[in-house]
Amino acid sequence: MKTKYLAHISEDETREQTLTDHLTGTAELAGQFAKAFDCEEQGKAVGRTHDIGKGTTAFWNRLHDGPIVDHSTAGAKELYDIGGLSNILAAYCVAGHHAGLPDGGTPGNGTGTSTLHGRMGKKLEDYSDFLKGIDIPKIPAPPLRSIEKGGFSLAFYTRMLFSCLVDADYLDTERFMSNGAVVRPKSDSIDVLFKMLEQHVTPWLRNTDRNTVNGRRTEILKACLEKGQAEQGLFQLTVPTGGGKTIASMAFGLRHAVEHNLERIVYVIPYTSIIEQNAQVFRNIFGDQNVLEDHCNVTFDDPDELKKYQLAAENYDKRVIVTTNVQFFESLFSYKTSKCRKLHNLAKSIIIFDEAQMLPVDYLLPCIRAISELVYNYHCTAVLCTATQPALNEHFPKAVSANIQEICPNVEDQYQFFKRTQVENIGQISEEFLIDCLKEQEQALCILGSRASVRRVFKQLQNEGVEGSYHLSTLMYPDHRKRILEKIRERLKSSKPCRVISTSLIEAGVDVDFPSVWRQLAGIDSIIQAAGRCNREGKRPMDQCKTVYFTFEGQKNTSLPSSMRRPISVAEQVVRKYEDISELQPIHEYFKNLYKVTGDGIDKKFIVDAFENAVNSWNFPFKTVSDAFQLIEQETKTVLIPLEPKAKEIAAKLEEGFYSKQLMRDAGRYSVNLYEKEYDALHDLGYIKEPLFEGFAVLTDESQYKEQYGLELVMETGIGIMFEG
């Protein structure tokens, strides 16, 4: 038996990290992270015990090219054997710190299965000699306030504690492996960011004329700054399209963060495709060093060893995070180390859900429960921010919803003032009729429900030589879309012909102003969002600006997934009842009916029950729920498009085996996410290289990417943009 136990050896084999040093370093970091939700002692405990299974001869041999050794189960077993709820939950974390949080299973599970119970009976290498110097603690109970049965609360806490351990383990390992060379870029303090924002908006605050658009925006902004001094909790910000809610909500968040000594702002939006615009707005105010766009589809998981590419996994180490519903909620329900690593940094945050009406209906209840946990137990404030406030209050637990507050003053009055366009139903039309109408209008925006329809209409306009025609979809990488949007805005500003055919990516949060908008029938909220791109600045008479919605002749919705059919079906009911669907009453009725129609469909995988029902057994199904919680039902994979010099540089570094968080962040700006069948078709034809790692490859045939519309797919699924994170 070796007397010096090691955790890591440097790649050049010249330096060693002792196991004791690694456990101590990890414990300190994990405790520091868990302190944000009052669980410092619990964090230190999982850090001190997570790798005691490395104290064996077998692991010494592993470090010198021996066979793989299970070193995660030992610490879990020691914690488990002490017993008690807190120790059992800690055992989940330690058991899963490489392979991911396991299902609890049952005591009857066979020894050696991947469940926690199964692993507790597993025969392990002898670590008793190293254990003599380790004190396995009886861990105190976490200071949780249970919501309803309490099972969901316990499972959520376990995932947050797991996050502290995983991030601490990664960071301590990275610190050793890089010999201290990796220095994380520092963000400015929240106080400094708030001063930057104040400087940015000060000129706006001088306008007090409520009869002007800017005066109304100022009124809303001032309300947000004032409300930022309120106690923490759950808020609504109901701002009509054009009311300046992006900056106003950030003003609330920063004022609130200063008031309550909070750590960061997390801005959650429905689509990857509009992250770049909102993030750019924030970068312009706060600088690159303070803003993170989290939309990379790549995750790094290795169940056996901590590889250097895993160190590139995201951990939300900046002050302003801009992410998507998919990234945010799938991470909150994930069992994977790479997804969970960032979760502890949500504690003591303001979380702004922009376009809150886009919370996924099929998973609405678990999403609401997750938001409730963050507000109730993790010192967070949540803001449901939208132009079409969904009827969510009754679905929040009473402990959270009892004191929900509206931030925007005079909501009804604001809606009437900001109405800039007439919204009309023109019934069924053909694609040919639509194309003829678009040709007759110098400037028009057309939003269709699938990428296939968008490309078909765009190509027809191209073939007929229609001037100023542009295509937008997520088959174009973010920096490409950004360039196209700049061209579009310039043509609109210069009164040049401009016809844009787009998927729904343009209707939420993208700042463009058209005199005419055409929208294929979708949910009422989508139609209202589309109308927000029409006469946005109010510079034209309202009777000259129309938003028309329609259906295509002969097209049935039966081929669409149920999560897309349902909003259309409910919208059809509301459309028949109301002439003007842009009023508050039809909007409210739409959401009430949408959630009522779904019934149990607001938790179609019974995820909340799966955790609540484990409250007494403590056998939580972490992996099973993670596999079931898929906001995008089809898995997507990432293709890096190496056309621009920066993208070529990123591809070269990745192919050389160089990984870092910043490199992966940069890669997202030049990448396209594809459904698995689309990805496989490109691979089979040799258009992309073998994956650099699971789910990430580089395009090799540059001719497959077109400047006009992005990646040329061999097949078209017709799947709507709503499914693209």
Give the topology.
Layout: E1 6-9, E2 16-18, H1 19-34, H2 40-49, H3 57-63, H4 73-82, H5 85-95, H6 116-120, H7 128-131, H8 151-177, H9 190-201, H10 213-227, E3 234-238, H11 245-260, E4 264-269, H12 275-286, E5 291-294, E6 320-324, H13 325-332, H14 337-340, E7 349-354, H15 364-377, E8 381-386, H16 398-401, E9 405-406, H17 411-418, E10 422-429, H18 431-440, E11 443-447, H19 451-463, E12 469-472, H20 478-493, E13 498-502, E14 516-520, H21 524-531, E15 546-552, H22 562-577, H23 584-598, H24 607-612, H25 622-628, E16 636-640, H26 645-655, H27 661-667, E17 671-675, H28 676-684, E18 696-698, E19 705-706, E20 710-711
Parallel strand pairs: 3-8, 3-9, 4-6, 4-7, 5-6, 7-8, 10-15, 11-13, 11-14, 12-13, 14-15, 16-18
Antiparallel strand pairs: 1-2, 16-17, 19-20
Helix pairs in contact: 1-2, 1-8, 2-5, 2-8, 4-5, 5-8, 9-11, 10-11, 22-23, 26-27
**Overall mean pLDDT:** 89
Quaternary structure classification = single chain
The stretches of 5 or more residues where confidence is low (pLDDT under 50) are 715-725
Strand order of the largest sheet: 5-6-4-7-8-3-9
The biggest sheet, with number of strands, parallel, antiparallel or mixed sense and barrel status, is:
7 strands, parallel
Rg value:
26 Å
Measured between the Cα atoms of the first and last residue, the distance is: 51 Å
Tally of contiguous helical segments: 28
Overall SS class: alpha/beta
* Principal-axes shape call: globular
DSSP E strands, number:
20
Strand residue percentage? 5-15%
Helix content: 40-55%
